[in-house]
C-alpha cells in the first residue's frame, strides 16, 4: 500500500519487529500509526481484541514523526494501566504511570528530573482534570515541543449515550484549547454513530483520519435461549459444551453474582464472583486466579471486562438481559480473542426488561438527576436488546452488525447463530382482538379503582376460576374469559408485548379519563414470537 512509501515506514516496521516482536500489522494499525506520526488527529474504531494499544504504543517509541516527545495516554482503569505499563517496561519501553498513588519522589525523579522523559505517560482522566501539577508539567512540555500527542483510550466514556460514561472524561475537551497543535488519537470499540459523533465533537477533533473495520467476529457463535430455571440451565449447558473451559457469566446485580457463583460451586464447577463492591485486593486476586486458570468461571457485573486480556475465553453467558446492544457486543467480545471458536449465550425472559426499566429509573433517582431524556434513551437501548432477542428469523450477526451501521450478508454467518442453525419460520398470529380486550379490561378495572398485575390480567382474559378474581367481582366483567380458548403462552406473550410497547402504561389523564396508546392495533403485524 502507499503507506509503505510513508517516511515513517522503515522505523515503524523496525520497531514492530525488534521491540514488539510482531511480524506484521493488523487491519488499520499501520494506517493509524502513520497518521498520528503525521501529526493528524486520528479516530480508531476497532473491536475489542483488535489491537488498539499498538496504535499508540508504537508511534510513542518512534523518533521520525512530526511531533516529538511524550505520548500522554488517558485511560479509565488503573488496573488496566498497570498491566500496560508493566508489559511495556518488560519490552524495555520507558512507560510511566502517574496517579494519586504514585510516590512523590518517583514523580519528582521521572517527571521533574533532568533525565530523559518517559515515552508514554499514563494518567486517569480524573488526574488530568484535577491535578494542577500535571497540568503544569504538560504546559511545560507543550512549550518546549516535547508533547507528542494525547491518546484517549476507551473514548466512548466521554459520551453520556453509553453505559460507561465517566464524568472526568467530559473535561477532555479542554485538551484541544489548552494544547493547540498537539494531535489527539481517540480509540474505542463502541461503534454506534451517535457515540462516534459525540466523541469527535467533544474532543474537538479536526480533519481527523478515521479508521473503522468490520465488527464481525467470525469465530463467535450467538445464541438466545428462553430463560426458565436459569442456573440449572447454565450448569447443564457448561457440562454439555464447556467442561474445563474459561468463561464469563454476566449478571445484573452484585448479590446475584455472589449467589450464582455459589450455586455453580455447589454443582462442582470452578467459579468466583467479581463486582464493584469488592476491595481492590479481592478483585486483583480473583482476576489473577481466573487469568492463570485456577478459577474457570467468573460471575460478574459489567464492572468486569474493560481491558481484560484473556485470550482463551470459550464462552460468555448473559444470565440477565444486557442494558444495550453495544454493551452486549462488548461483553460478548471478550470471548474467543485467540480466534478459536467461542459461544455467546443470552438467557432471555421478557420480565428482565421491566427490571431494567426500574433500575434505570432508580439509578436516576439516586443521582437526583431527573433527566427524562436520558432515562428514555436508556430504556430505548434496552428495548433494542429485547427486539434482538425476540427476532428469531433474522441472522444474529445481521441484526448486531446492522446496529453498528454495517451491512452483513446472512450467507457469511455459516451457521454461527441460533437463527441460522435452526431456522424457525415465524407464523404470524392475529392477536388484535386479544390485545383490544386486554386494554379494555384494564380500563374497566381501573374504573373500579383497582390496580392489577400482568399475571392477573392474563387470568382474567383466560377466565380462570379463582376465588381471588371472584372476590373482586372481576368474573362479572363483560370481557372476563374472552380469550379462554387461547393458549396460556400466547396470552402471556401478548400481555408482555403490550407492556413492552408501553400500551399498558397510561399516557395521560385528562378530565378524569385515562388515555392509552393505540399502537396495540398493530400487534397483529408484529411477530409475537
Ligand atoms: P484492544 O485494546 O483493541 O482490545 P489489544 O491492544 O489489547 O486489543 O490487543 C489484543 C491482542 O492482540 C494483544 O494480545 C496483542 O498483543 C495482540 N496484537 C495486537 N496487534 C497485533 C499484531 N499486529 N500482530 C499480532 N498480535 C497483535
Give a description of the structure.
- Its main location: nucleus.
- Its EC number is 5.6.2.4.
- One of its GO terms (molecular function) is ATP hydrolysis activity.
- The chain has 529 residues and is of the alpha/beta class.
- 42% of the residues lie in helices and 13% in strands.
- The protein has 21 helices and 15 strands.
- It has helices at residues 9-18, 29-37, 52-60, 78-90, 104-112, 125-130, 132-143, 174-178, 193-203, 230-241, 254-266, 280-291, 325-332, 351-367, 372-390, 396-403, 418-421, 432-447, 454-462, 467-472, 488-500, and strands at 42-45, 70-74, 95-97, 120-123, 147-152, 184-188, 209-212, 220-226, 246-250, 271-274, 297-300, 313-318, 342-348, 508-510, 513-515.
- A seven-stranded parallel sheet has the order 3-4-2-5-6-1-7, sandwiched between helices. Strands 8-13-12-9-11-10 form a six-stranded parallel sheet. Strands 14-15 form a two-stranded antiparallel ribbon.
- Helix 5 links the parallel strand 3 (95-97) and strand 4 (120-123).
- Helix 14 (351-367) runs antiparallel to helix 15.
- The relative contact order is 0.08.
- Adenosine-5'-diphosphate is lined by residues 22, 25-26, 29, 46, 48-54, 309.
- The assigned structural class equals alpha/beta
- Pick out the low-confidence regions: 506-529
Q: Which strands sit side by side, in order, in the main sheet?
A: 3-4-2-5-6-1-7
Percentage of residues in DSSP E strands: 5-15%
Overall shape: it is elongated
Q: Compounds present?
A: adenosine-5'-diphosphate
Average predicted local confidence, pLDDT? 87
Helix share bin? 40-55%
Distance separating the two termini:
49 Å
Cα gyration radius (Å): 27 Å
Outline the biggest β-sheet.
Answer: 7 strands, parallel
**SS element count, helices:** 21
Strand tally is 15
Amino acid at each position: 500500500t502507499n503507506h509503505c512509501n510513508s517516511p515513517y515506514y522503515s522505523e515503524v516496521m523496525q520497531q514492530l519487529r525488534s521491540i514488539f516482536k510482531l511480524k506484521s500489522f493488523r487491519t488499520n494499525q499501520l494506517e493509524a500509526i502513520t497518521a498520528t506520526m503525521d501529526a493528524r488527529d486520528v479516530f480508531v474504531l476497532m473491536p475489542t481484541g483488535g489491537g488498539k494499544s499498538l496504535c499508540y504504543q508504537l508511534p510513542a517509541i518512534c523518533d521520525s514523526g512530526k511531533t516529538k516527545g511524550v505520548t500522554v495516554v488517558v485511560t479509565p482503569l488503573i488496573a488496566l494501566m498497570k498491566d500496560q505499563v508493566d508489559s511495556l517496561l518488560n519490552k524495555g519501553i520507558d512507560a510511566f504511570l502517574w496517579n494519586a498513588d504514585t510516590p512523590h519522589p518517583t514523580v519528582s525523579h521521572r517527571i521533574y528530573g533532568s533525565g530523559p522523559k518517559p515515552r508514554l505517560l499514563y494518567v486517569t482522566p480524573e488526574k488530568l482534570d484535577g491535578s494542577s501539577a500535571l497540568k503544569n508539567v504538560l504546559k511545560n512540555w507543550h512549550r518546549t515541543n516535547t508533547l507528542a500527542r494525547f491518546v484517549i483510550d476507551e473514548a466512548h466514556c466521554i459520551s453520556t449515550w453509553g453505559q460507561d460514561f465517566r464524568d472526568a472524561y467530559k473535561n477532555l475537551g479542554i485538551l484541544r484549547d489548552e494544547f493547540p497543535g498537539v494531535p489527539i488519537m481517540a480509540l474505542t470499540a463502541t461503534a454506534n454513530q451517535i457515540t462516534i459523533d459525540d466523541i469527535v465533537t467533544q474532543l474537538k477533533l479536526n480533519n481527523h483520519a478515521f479508521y473503522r473495520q468490520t465488527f464481525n467476529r467470525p469465530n463467535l457463535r450467538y445464541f438466545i435461549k428462553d430463560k426458565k430455571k436459569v442456573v440449572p440451565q447454565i450448569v447443564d449447558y457448561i457440562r454439555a459444551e464447556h467442561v474445563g473451559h474459561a468463561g464469563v457469566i454476566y449478571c445484573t446485580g452484585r448479590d446475584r453474582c455472589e449467589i450464582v457463583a455459589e450455586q455453580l460451586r455447589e454443582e462442582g464447577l470452578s467459579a468466583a464472583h467479581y463486582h464493584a463492591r469488592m476491595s481492590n485486593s479481592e478483585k486483583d486476586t480473583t482476576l489473577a486466579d481466573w487469568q492463570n486458570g485456577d478459577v474457570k468461571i467468573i460471575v460478574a457485573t459489567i464492572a468486569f471486562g474493560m481491558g481484560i486480556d484473556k485470550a482463551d475465553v470459550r464462552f460468555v453467558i448473559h444470565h440477565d438481559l444486557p442494558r444495550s446492544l453495544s454493551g452486549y457486543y462488548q461483553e460478548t467480545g471478550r470471548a474467543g480473542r485467540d480466534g478459536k471458536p467461542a459461544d455467546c449465550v443470552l438467557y432471555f425472559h421478557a420480565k428482565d426488561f421491566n427490571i431494567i426499566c426500574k433500575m434505570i429509573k432508580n439509578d436516576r433517582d439516586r443521582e437526583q438527576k431527573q433527566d427524562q431524556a436520558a432515562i428514555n434513551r436508556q430504556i430505548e437501548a434496552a428495548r433494542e436488546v429485547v427486539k434482538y432477542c425476540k427476532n428469531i428469523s433474522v441472522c444474529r450477526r445481521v441484526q448486531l452488525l446492522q446496529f453498528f451501521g454495517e451491512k452483513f450478508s446472512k450467507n457469511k454467518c455459516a451457521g454461527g447463530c441460533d437463527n441460522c442453525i435452526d431456522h424457525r419460520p415465524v407464523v404470524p398470529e392475529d392477536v388484535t382482538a386479544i390485545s383490544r380486550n386486554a386494554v379494555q379490561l384494564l380500563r374497566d378495572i381501573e374504573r373500579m379503582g383497582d390496580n392489577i398485575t400482568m399475571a392477573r390480567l392474563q387470568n382474567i382474559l383466560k377466565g380462570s376460576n379463582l376465588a381471588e378474581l371472584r372476590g373482586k367481582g372481576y368474573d362479572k366483567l363483560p370481557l372476563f374469559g374472552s380469550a379462554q380458548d387461547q393458549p396460556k403462552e400466547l396470552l402471556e406473550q401478548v400481555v408482555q408485548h403490550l407492556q413492552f410497547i408501553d400500551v399498558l402504561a397510561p399516557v395521560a389523564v385528562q378530565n378524569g379519563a385515562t388515555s392509552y396508546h393505540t399502537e396495540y392495533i398493530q400487534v397483529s403485524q408484529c411477530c409475537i414470537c
